[in-house]
Every structure is written in C-alpha cells, then in structure tokens.
Amino acid sequence: MTADENGHPNLTELGYDERSPVAVDEHGHGHEVELPEDPFADPGLEPHRPRATDIDEKVAQKAERQVAALFALSALATIGFMVAYTEVPRTAVVNFFPIGAVSASNFALGMLLGIALFSLGAGAVYWARTLMTDVELTQERHLLESGSEAKAQAVAEFEKGVADSGIKRRPLIRRTLLGALAVLPLPALWVLRDLGPLPGDSLRHTAWKAGELIINDNTVSIDGSTGQGVKPEDITIGTLVQGRPKAALTAGDQYNDLMAKSAILLVRLDPADIKSQQQRDWGYQGIVAFSKICTHVGCPVALYEQQTHHMLCPCHQSTFDLSDGGKVIFGPAARSLPQLPITVDADGYLVAKSDFDQPVGPSFWERG
Amino acid sequence: MTATTPHAAGFGDGTAPSTPAGKAADYLDQRLGIAGAAKKNLRKIFPDHWSFMLGEIALYSFIVLLLSGVFLTLFFTPSMNEVTYNGSYTPLDGIKMSEAYASTVNISFDVRGGLLMRQIHHWAALVFVMAITVHMLRIFFTGAFRKPRELNWLIGFGLFVMALLEGFAGYSLPDDLLSGTGLRIAEGVVLSIPIIGTYVSFFLFGGEFPGHDLVPRLFTIHILLVPGLILALITVHLILVFYQKHTQWAGPGRTNENVVGLPLLPVYIAKAGGFFFLVFGIISLLAGLVSINPIWTYGPYVPNEMTAGSQPDWYIGFLEGSLRMMPNVEFNFIGHTLSLNVLIPALIVPGILFTGLAVYPFIEAWVTGDRREHHILDRPRNVPTRTGIGVAGCTFYGVLWVVGGNDLIATHFHLSLESITWAGRVVVFVGPAFAFWITRRICYGLQRADREKVLHGREAGVIVRSPEGEFSEVHAPISDGDRYRLTAHDVHRPLSIAQAADANGIPAPRLRRAKLRARFTRWYFGTRVEKPSTEEYRESITSGHH
Ligand code: HEM
Ligand code: FES
C-alpha cells in the first residue's frame, strides 16, 4: 500500500468503491452528501471575511478618530513628561495602595512616558488591525537548496581557485602557512598575562598575626578609621560579636580586600559545651573566634542560633556547629569554618595568637 | 538608447518620476540600484500568530536596553575607588563606598529621570531575558529549529547565553551589597575549576577578590563587548529569518512551498512598529510604578555583611538552587582540592543543560533521519517525544529555580530547610522523568481527541434524546479547513536498521551505530496515533456515528 505525502492511504489501491456515501444529520435523517475523493486534501485559502470597517464607512471613520485620539494622547503625554521633568520636585513622595511610597518624580515621569509610548503603539496597532488590509496573500516559497548543477558548479569554481593557488601542489607553502596561522592567535593569550598577579601563596594568609588587636565591628566609626578592641567581659554567653583586625582601620583602599579574608566572629560558649581540647585552647575562657567567610563560596556567615551554637550562611544555608570546631552539619559547604587562635594582650584586650592555620573561604585547586 | 540632454540621469527614457516618493526612490536607486530588492521585499509576506511576537519582544526590549543604557553611561562612574558619600540620600551620608555605587545612588536621587532610566533598564533586562527564553521554548516545542533553521537555532542559543552574561555583568556594576555578594559567589565558582581556577580568578579580578579592577572590566564587557556581539548576532539572526522566510502553522492554503500572511508594508510596519512602542510603554509604566533593585537600601558592598532572604535576578535563580541542593562532596589528594560541591552544580550541570539545548536539533535530525526542509510548524502534541523532552528539561530547570528560593519557601510555609533541600534532591531526578512520561501521554490523548474530532466532528454542546430514550451529544461536523489542519502533520515511523545505516553493505562499526539509531527512533516514534484513513472517515460519515 502506498500513501500520499500526508500519509493518507491511497484509495484506489485499497479497492475503494466510489459509491455515494450517506451522511446522517443530528436528527438521524440520512441524506446524500458529496464526499471529495480525498477528504483530507488542502481545501485552499479560506475566503476573506470582511470586517465592519471594510463594509461600513461610518465604522471606519470611528476607528480613524480612535486612532487619531490615541496619537494625540501620546503627544500630550510627551509634553506632560517634559513639564513633569522640571515641575515635580525631586524629593516629593507619593503614597498609594498597594505600592506604597514612591518618588513622585519617578512616578510622574514613568506614567507619562509610558502613556506617550503606549498610546502611540496602541494607535498604530489598532490602525493596522481595523483600517489596513487584512486580506491574506500568498507568496511562493522556494526550497533553499540549490539544484545539484549549481552546487556542482560552485564546487568546481572553488576547486579551480584552489588549483590556481597551487596550494595542493606546494606542500611547503601549505604547511608553513597553517603553522603560522596556528601560532598567530597565541599572543592574544600572551598579552592577557598582566591582567593580574599570580596567586602565589596570597590565599593562604590573612591580615591576622600574633598580637593583632581584634576590633569590635559595632564600635567602628562611620568612616571606618577608628574602633575599639574587645574585652572578654564584653562578650556574654549567647552574644555574637563581629570583628576585624586593627589593620582594617588603616587599610584605606585595601579595606575590602582585607576584609574579604579577615572578617571574624566571636562567641562565648560554655567551655563544657566545646567538643575538643584544641578548640578550647585556641579560644579564651570559652570565647572562640571563627572566620566569617563561608567555606562554600565565600559569603559572610551571619545567622547565629545560640541554643544550638549553629551558624548559618544566608547564601546557601550551610550550617556550621561552632561548639564542634565549626564543623559543617548541613548544606553544600564541605569544610569547617577555620578557627582563629586568640588570647588577651597586656591591656586585657582580645588579640590573635597567630594567623589562621589554613586558608579561609572557598576551596581552590592548590589548597590541598 | 539616445540621451535627451547631456545631463539626463539614468536611462533617459523620459519616465522621470514626479511624486516625492518616486523622486526619493529614484535618487537612491541611481546610487544603490536597490529597486529590485525593494520591489521584492517591501510587500514581503509574513505569517501571523501570537507566538511569533515573542522574539519581537526580545528585540524591542534590547533596543530599550540600548537607549536607557546609553543614558546611564552618561552618569555612571565605573570605578571601585573609594569615595565618601554626601549626596541627597541622607541615610548614606558620610559612608565610604566605591565610586560605582555612589554614582548609582546619584543617578537614583540626584539625576532627574535617572531613577526612571535605571528602573527602565533593569525591567527591560528582565523582560529581555524572559522573552528570549520563552521565544526559545516556542521554537523548540513547535520544531521551528528543524532543517533549514538549525544554524539560526545556534545563533539564537548564542544570544541566550550572551543575554545571561550581559545581565549578570550589568547587575554587578552598581557594586552594592547584593551584586557584590553575587560576585563573591562567582569568585568561589571560578576557584573551583580544577588546575586553572585560581589563576583565572586572579586574572579576572586583577588579584585577590574583590580588588579594584572588576567593575571597570565588567563595564567594558557590559556596554561594549557583549552588546556589540548581541547586536551583530541579532542582525544575522534576523537576516536569516528574512531570507529563509518565516515558518507558518498548517492550515488551508498553507503549504511547505508558500507563505500566507499580510504584507510587510504597511501591515507589519505598523504592527511591529506599534508593538515596539507598546513594549517600551509597558516597561516605562512598570518602571514608574514598581521599584526594582533599590540599591540604596542594600548599602555598598562590603565582604563581611549579608542580608538573609535576598535573591538574585530571576535568570540566575537556577544556579542558586543548583548550588544549594548539591551535597557537600569535596576531594583532597596530593596537595590538591577538587570541590565537586561547587564545580558540579555551578558549571557542570548548567554546562550539560546548555549543551543539550544547543545540539538538540542535530540529535533529533540524527534520530529521526529526517532530511527534508520544514516550513510548517509542528503542533507540540504531534511530536510527543520532543514535547516530553522539552517539558522534562523545563521541569529540571524549574526544580533548580524553586530550590533557589528554599529559604523563602521555608519561612513562608513553615517548612524546614533540610526537608525542602532533600525533597529538591529527589524531585530534580524524579520530576523530569515523570514530566516526560505524563507529557507524552497527554500528547497522545490530545492526538486521539483530534482524531475523534476529524471522524465524528466536534461536540456541539447540545444533548438530544433519541426515540429509544438514549441521550447523546450532538456532534457538529468540522469544516474542510479544520479537517485539513488536523490531519496535515506527518506520522513518523521508526527507522529500520537498514534505513538507519543509510547504506546497503553495512560494515560492523556502522551496524552498531545503526542499531543504536534504530533503537532511538523506536523510542521516539514507537507509540503512534495514526491519522484517520479515508476509509475510516467515509465509514464514520456513512454510519453517522456519534
Ligand atoms: C543586552 C542587554 C542588557 C542587559 C540584559 C543589561 C542589564 C543590566 C542590569 C540588570 C543592570 C543593573 C541595573 C540596576 O538595577 O542598577 C545594568 C546596569 C547598567 N547598564 Fe545594562 N544591560 C544591557 C545593555 C546595556 C547597554 C547596551 C548599555 C550601554 C550602552 C548598558 C549600560 C549600563 C550601565 C551604565 C549600567 C550601570 C548603571 C546602573 O546600574 O544604574 N547596558 N544593566
Ligand atoms: S556561601 Fe555559604 S553556603 Fe554558599
């Protein structure tokens, strides 16, 4: 059995006998109908149905006025925009449901510009839909593929060109050319070398060193240049103190670079709750300091739950147990928060005993 | 040819144009010889359908981005140098911040119309990426990527990736707390790349994070490099659409060898031009009404602060979810660290997803062995396997996206983060498989319904009682046009092994490939709903079956 291009089986091959079929209407009365030979054949473009604007000039004129009104509204809103630009004070605020307080200037400018643009667009679209032709037209579409002759000619032309160049006959030229072209892009990589310094061991060090004073973030002045140290008695059980090295106060332009590795947090735990001796030794009377930089991809951990000693990172919810060496208990981070060994100095302020014993923040290939 | 006067133009055949349009056209044609091209193209026919407007929305929002972006460049300072704020937004008074952040606050409060432009720019960015995405799904589900349009699919894919990059770069420019945190995450992701990650990160940031180079570099990328590439690709994309002519839906009078629709001049000029203003207008209204990215409330970027519950722009959400869901596996060996907990969710999973998207047309062509040119779109139901794959892909993406907001879900619905994350880990695998299965079934069901409609007409909504007392619904016959529309598609059959191998004598390695290919086509087309045959149709008409 063969089928036509739509996959409909061929009738005559099926031995179909062309009797006049009978259709039955809704009421069950049979009557004769003409059935086309192929009931699935393309009946051709449906006849155009005229719109109200096509047959009634009054309706068309009304549509014309509507389009014109939209264009006029657009022009008015454009002028309104320019007026609002100068007349609405920058600091005024309007307040309305459900959006709340918004800048009056932004509101006025946005609405007027929006109306100017929208009504221009609406007018054009409405014009196209009501007054411009909607008689569907058909254009031929030629398959994109060229004939095999044209293709053969194109290939022949190409080969003639190649033959004229002699590139096939002269392998020495061909090979040196390919070689030269192959190495030519390398300088594009070469010249990128000075985009940045090599990492060296910079990711292994922070601004902490023996005796570095811990500054309480809450005491730092607004310009970041002064701040006070922390005494053990300032930290009660359950409170969280965020800290930075004293060097941060004078870091100037390097402040963010410094803080990206050196931000810490301090909590006081009941020494009995601390799970390891090393953690107790690196703390001071139950006060322990941890890196604030999440070991997942580097967000600052922030949410402390004092009952459980859990520290949560707001980015992807890695949760660290501060009573258990900063161990990961949930989330995508794979490593504990590094602990900063601390002690007190001669004046009774908390200071670092040394730098972190490992790189802080996200993992990297050379970290080991 | 005889010249009338020594200065006569052109052919001097005495048919000098008299209308202004004619004169202008004559002027141009004498210099460019464009009459031929204009004659052919001014009244070029374009088919119409609402889903063909999605690409237009993408194009128009890109133009809006260009316009508003140029305005922003006039006031934005791409610098990470530290300044002390003393503008009119008093809560930030005296605070140290980067010039980038300070200038963005200034644009918002001290440049009239500046906030509007920022909000137009940001809203347009969201609309742009959304429109590209939905447009791409439209192309996928209707099979518009099939031969001869595979190359344009690749160009479109390139545009999609570039739009995501462009959006991320732009989002990062203001150097506020949220965008800076986004960059910190990006740094962590780059660091997770084996062997070269640390070096790439140092070259990108000009040293350690955050450094002072990134915002200026992103600025160049954001306003020159990527928009330039996008513009170039859009141009080629549209030239191809024009040259290959738009696809159309099956219907009476519409064949693979014609285009049915309305002429470019005037209808599409008016509709498309008008539509540009509609898109621009709606974006402006949004920007006037709905605040977006109020960076002054976040504060400048500092590496040691972060607010909970903050979310990136929507198109980055799936990466967030992917990162959040991943179990924390990391390996250490001979002095090296392999952070699979970051590498897999942030680079490998999107890599696979995007590669699959890019090469899908070629895979489908190989599986189906279909080498014909297609200019008639598929209804998604008529290609159930493709539709199933598409819905499965969307489900996968959707699960990642939803888990990206797991903290918000946890607080809104009082669920534990753990349970959401675990549910996500399961659903991300089970969900797509289920979606594939159910989608295919729905497609087959819809095809059967179409078949019914062809054979027995559509339900007319009238119940009649027969003389025997039976109730039945009246079926009204469908029009010739509808019958054609519902049966114009191909019902594909799996390839035999011989067809799959394209050859008579099959050497062994090719035989294995051919077997694989035949197996794939069986999976693709194994279950079919056949179209009614002429015989069945006549049978149903003559018997008056309801
Ligand atoms: C291809 C599409 C583009 C996308 C998706 C995009 C996206 C964005 C986004 C999300 C922002 C952050 C805006 C904020 O909320 O503050 C932004 C900022 C910016 N964009 Fe674009 N943009 C695009 C094209 C352009 C172009 C072509 C230009 C200029 C020629 C430009 C210039 C700027 C400038 C100067 C800023 C920073 C100023 C500010 O944030 O207020 N953008 N962009
Ligand atoms: S950065 Fe902390 S969980 Fe991802």
From TrEMBL, chain A:
Its main location: membrane. It is a multi-pass membrane protein. Signal peptide: none annotated. Residues 287-351 form the Rieske domain. Residues 16-34 have a biased composition (Basic and acidic residues). It is found in: Cell membrane. Gene3D superfamilies: Rieske [2Fe-2S] iron-sulphur domain (2.102.10.10). This is Cytochrome bc1 complex Rieske iron-sulfur subunit. The lineage of its organism: Bacteria, Bacillati, Actinomycetota, Actinomycetes, Catenulisporales.
UniProtKB/TrEMBL annotation, chain B:
It is a multi-pass membrane protein. Its EC number is 7.1.1.8. PROSITE patterns: CYTB_NTER (PS51002). One of its GO terms (biological process) is respiratory electron transport chain. One of its GO terms (molecular function) is quinol-cytochrome-c reductase activity. This is Cytochrome bc1 complex cytochrome b subunit. It catalyses: a quinol + 2 Fe(III)-[cytochrome c](out) = a quinone + 2 Fe(II)-[cytochrome c](out) + 2 H(+)(out). One of its GO terms (cellular component) is plasma membrane. The chain crosses the membrane at residues 57-76, 122-141, 153-173, 185-207, 219-243, 275-296, 342-363, 383-402, 422-439. Residues 24-250 form the Cytochrome b/b6 N-terminal region profile domain. PANTHER family: CYTOCHROME B. Keywords: Cell membrane, Electron transport, Heme, Iron, Membrane, Metal-binding, Respiratory chain, Translocase, Transmembrane, Transmembrane helix, Transport. Its cofactor is heme. InterPro entries: Cyt_b/b6_N (IPR005797), Cytb/b6-like_sf (IPR027387), Di-haem_cyt_TM (IPR016174). It is found in: Cell membrane. It comes from the Bacteria. Its main location: membrane.
